C-alpha cells in the first residue's frame, strides 16, 4: 500500500481511537476501565458465601453465581479464567467445589443442569489430573504451581470446603499446614523468613494456616505456640484489612480468607463480616465477580501516556489532580511501605507498587511538564528504596525473591528507569546509581535471542504461558528513552531486543505472545509497534520501514480502522490467573496511531 494511503488510514484511526478513549473518562477525572468477569473469582466468592453463617441476601448471590457458572462452562466440561480462555485445572477445581457446596445449600444437587455440569467437569478433571482423589488433585496443582503454595494450598482448601476431598475433618489433612504463627513476628523480618507464599498473600497465609490448625490440630509444645499466635495474627488481619473489606480489592484473596476463617470457627468475626460485605458490594448484575475491583490508577496513567498532547487542556488539570490524590503520603499498613508510591487502584484495598509508581511519575511529567517536583521526588525515592540488591525492581516488597512474583522483573525495572530518566535534573534525588544497576541487571537477564519475560502479562497459548513479545516490547520501549552515552552496554541490549521483535513479527504483520504462530492480538501487536516506533528515534537502531508499515496495517485490521478493540486475556494476576481489561487494546492502539502520525509529521513524509 502506498505510504500516503496508509498515513491517511492511521490518522483517521487515531482520531477515532482518541475520541473513544476520551469518552471513557469518569467524572472523577481518571479512567476506571472494566475487568473481565472471572469464573475463578466467582467460584471462590460462592464458596466463601456458602460456608459463612447464613445471612439475608446470601441465597440470591449463590443462585446468581451458580447460574453464571453453569452458563459459562466450556464445551469440554472445564472452566477457564475468562470467557476467552481455555480450561485449566485451578479454575475447574474451584468451580467444581463451588457447585458442590452451593448446590447443597440451595438444594440444587439433583437438578439436571447442576448434575450435568458436575458430571462434565468431573470428566474433564479426570482427563487432566488422572482422577478425582486428593492425591491426584494435589499432584495436578503441584504440576501447575511447583513449590509456590500461594494458590495451590487455597485451592485444595476450597476443595475441602466444597466437600470434594472426602469427609471432614480428615479431608483437611490434604491441605498443607501453613506457618501462620510466623506472622506474629515483626513484619520487617518476613523477607528473611522465606515464607511459602508471596508477600501480598499474607492474609491467606494467616487465615488458611489457622483453618488447617483448627481442623487438624498439632500436639506437643508447638501446639502451645500456634494456639498463642491465633489471636495475635487474627488481630493483624483486621489491622491490615482495608476499609472496604477487600484484601487488595481482590475477590479470590478476600474469599479465601473468609472461607478459611469460617472453617476455623471465626465465621462471625469482624474480618469475615467485612470480607462478606466486600463480596456483596462487588458482585456484578449477571451474578459474576471480576478478579479485582478495578485498575483505575494503572489505566489512567496508561491513557495519559497514550494520549499525550491529545488530552485536551480542559481535562489535564482534573486528571493531574486525581493522580496526585492517589499518592500515598503515609506508611502503608498492609506492607509497611514508605510514603511516596502509587497503587493500581483508587480504592482502599490498593497497595503501592513499582509499576504503578513508575507509571504515575511518567504521567505527571506529561501532565505538568515538571511542575510536580515534590510528588515526583517522593515517588522517585520510593522506587529507589524498593530496588533489589541485584539491581532489578520487584512489585511490592524489597528482598523477598523466594517465589516468582516477588522477584525482580524486567518490565518493572525498565519502567522505573524511564520514570527516573523523566525527572532527572528536576528533583533533588540522584537516580544515576540506581539506573546504572538497573541497566546492568537488564543486560544480565536478557535472553540469548534478545528477549525478556514480563511479570504481570503472559499468553495462555504460548509454551510455558510466557509472553516474550510483550516483555521485550515493554523493556525496549522504555530503554529507548535513556541516553546511550550514560550506559555503555545500552546499545547492544537495545539492538538485541529489536532483533527479537522483528524476528517475531508474523507473516500477516501482527504479533502474538512469542514466535510460535499464535493468533495476533491488539495488545501484543500494539506493544511491539510502540517499541519499534520508539526505536526508530534512536540513533544506531535500524527499524525497517516495511516492518512498521506491515505492523500498522495489521493493527488497523485488528481494530477495524480504529473502531473496535477486542481484548485478549494476556493479563496475569497472582499465580497464573488470567484476565482481560477493556481499556488495554484501546489504549495501546491509540498510542501507536498517535506515535506513527507524529513520526510522519516529524519526518515531513
Structural commentary:
With 605 residues, the chain is mostly helical. The chain has two domains: 343 residues, Glycosyltransferase; 254 residues, Glycosyltransferase (Alpha/alpha barrel), CATH 1.50.10.20. 55% of the residues lie in helices and 2% in strands. It contains 23 helices and four strands. The strands form two sheets. A two-stranded antiparallel ribbon has the order 1-2. It has a two-stranded antiparallel sheet with strand order 3-4. α7 crosses α11. The longest helix is centred in the first third of the chain and has 21 residues. The model has no long low-confidence stretch (mean pLDDT 92).
The H/E string reads HEHHHHHHHHHHHEHHHHHHHHHHEEH
Report mean pLDDT, rounded to a whole number: 92
Query: Can you tell me the CATH topology of the largest domain?
Result: Glycosyltransferase
Helix fraction bin: 40-55%
Taking the alpha carbons of the first and last residues, their distance comes to 15 Å
Shape: globular
The strand line-up of the biggest sheet is 1-2
Level-2 CATH architecture of the largest domain:
Alpha/alpha barrel
State the name of the first-level CATH class of the largest domain.
Mainly Alpha
Q: How many individual β-strands?
A: 4
Q: Nearest-angstrom radius of gyration?
A: 24 Å
- The overall number of domains is 2
Percent strand equals under 5%
Compute the number of helices.
23
Q: Which structural category do the helix and sheet elements fall into? A: mainly alpha
Amino acid at each position: 500500500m502506498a505510504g500516503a494511503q496508509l498515513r491517511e488510514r492511521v490518522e483517521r484511526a487515531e482520531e477515532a481511537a482518541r475520541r473513544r478513549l476520551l469518552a471513557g473518562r469518569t467524572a472523577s477525572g481518571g479512567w476506571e476501565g472494566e475487568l473481565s468477569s472471572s469464573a475463578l473469582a466467582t467460584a471462590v466468592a460462592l464458596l466463601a458465601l456458602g460456608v459463612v453463617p447464613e445471612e439475608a441476601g446470601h441465597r440470591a448471590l449463590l443462585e446468581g453465581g451458580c447460574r453464571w457458572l453453569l452458563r459459562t462452562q466450556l464445551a469440554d466440561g472445564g472452566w477457564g479464567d475468562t470467557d476467552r480462555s481455555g480450561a485449566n485445572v485451578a479454575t475447574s477445581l474451584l468451580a467444581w467445589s463451588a457447585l458442590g457446596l452451593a448446590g447443597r445449600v440451595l438444594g440444587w444437587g439433583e437438578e439436571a443442569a447442576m448434575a450435568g455440569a458436575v458430571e462434565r467437569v468431573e470428566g474433564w478433571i479426570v482427563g487432566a489430573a488422572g482422577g478425582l482423589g486428593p492425591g491426584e488433585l494435589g499432584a495436578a496443582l503441584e504440576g501447575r504451581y511447583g513449590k509456590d503454595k500461594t494458590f495451590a494450598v487455597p485451592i485444595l482448601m476450597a476443595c475441602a470446603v466444597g466437600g470434594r476431598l472426602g469427609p471432614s475433618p480428615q479431608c483437611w489433612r490434604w491441605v498443607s499446614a501453613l506457618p501462620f504463627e510466623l506472622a506474629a513476628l515483626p513484619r520487617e523480618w518476613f523477607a528473611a523468613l522465606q515464607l511459602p507464599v508471596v508477600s501480598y498473600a499474607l492474609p491467606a497465609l494467616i487465615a488458611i494456616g489457622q483453618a488447617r490448625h483448627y481442623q487438624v490440630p498439632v500436639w506437643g509444645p508447638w501446639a502451645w505456640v500456634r494456639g498463642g499466635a491465633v489471636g495475635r495474627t487474627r488481630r493483624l488481619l483486621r489491622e491490615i484489612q482495608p476499609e472496604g473489606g477487600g484484601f487488595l480489592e481482590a475477590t479470590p484473596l478476600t474469599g479465601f480468607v473468609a472461607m478459611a476463617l469460617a472453617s476455623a470457627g471465626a465465621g462471625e468475626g469482624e474480618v469475615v463480616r467485612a470480607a462478606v460485605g466486600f463480596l456483596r458490594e462487588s458482585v456484578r448484575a449477571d451474578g459474576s465477580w471480576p478478579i479485582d475491583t478495578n485498575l483505575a490508577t494503572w489505566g489512567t496513567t496508561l491513557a495519559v501516556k497514550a494520549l499525550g498532547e491529545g488530552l485536551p487542556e480542559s481535562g489535564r488539570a482534573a486528571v493531574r489532580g486525581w493522580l496526585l490524590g492517589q499518592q500515598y503520603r503515609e506508611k502503608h499498613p498492609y506492607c509497611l511501605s514508605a510514603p511516596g508510591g502509587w497503587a493500581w487502584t483508587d480504592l482502599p484495598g490498593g497497595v503501592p507498587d513499582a509499576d504503578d509508581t513508575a507509571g504515575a511519575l511518567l504521567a505527571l511529567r506529561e501532565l505538568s511538564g515538571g511542575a510536580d517536583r515534590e510528588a515526583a521526588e517522593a515517588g522517585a525515592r520510593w522506587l529507589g528504596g524498593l530496588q533489589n540488591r541485584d539491581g532489578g525492581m520487584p512489585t511490592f516488597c524489597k528482598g523477598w525473591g523466594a517465589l516468582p512474583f516477588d522477584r525482580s522483573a524486567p518490565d518493572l525495572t525498565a519502567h522505573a528507569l524511564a520514570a527516573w530518566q523523566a525527572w532527572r535534573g528536576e528533583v533533588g534525588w540522584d537516580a544515576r546509581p540506581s539506573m546504572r544497576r538497573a541497566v546492568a541487571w537488564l543486560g544480565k537477564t536478557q535472553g540469548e535471542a534478545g528477549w525478556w519475560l514480563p511479570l504481570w502479562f503472559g499468553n495462555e497459548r504460548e509454551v510455558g504461558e510466557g509472553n516474550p513479545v510483550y516483555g521485550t516490547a515493554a523493556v525496549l520501549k522504555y530503554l529507548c528513552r535513556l541516553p546511550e552515552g550514560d550506559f555503555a552496554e545500552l546499545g547492544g541490549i537495545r539492538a538485541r531486543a529489536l532483533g527479537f521483535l522483528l524476528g517475531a513479527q508474523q507473516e500477516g504483520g501482527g504479533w502474538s505472545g512469542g514466535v510460535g504462530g499464535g493468533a495476533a492480538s491488539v495488545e501484543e501487536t500494539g506493544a511491539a509497534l510502540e517499541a519499534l516506533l520508539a526505536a526508530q528515534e534512536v540513533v544506531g537502531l535500524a527499524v525497517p520501514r516495511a516492518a512498521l508499515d506491515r505492523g500498522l496495517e495489521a493493527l488497523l485490521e485488528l481494530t477495524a480502522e480504529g473502531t473496535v478493540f477486542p481484548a485478549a486475556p494476556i493479563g496475569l494476576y497472582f499465580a497464573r490467573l488470567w484476565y482481560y481489561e477493556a481499556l488495554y487494546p484501546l489504549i495501546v492502539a491509540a498510542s501507536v496511531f498517535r506515535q506513527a502520525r507524529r513520526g510522519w509529521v516529524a519526518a515531513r513524509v
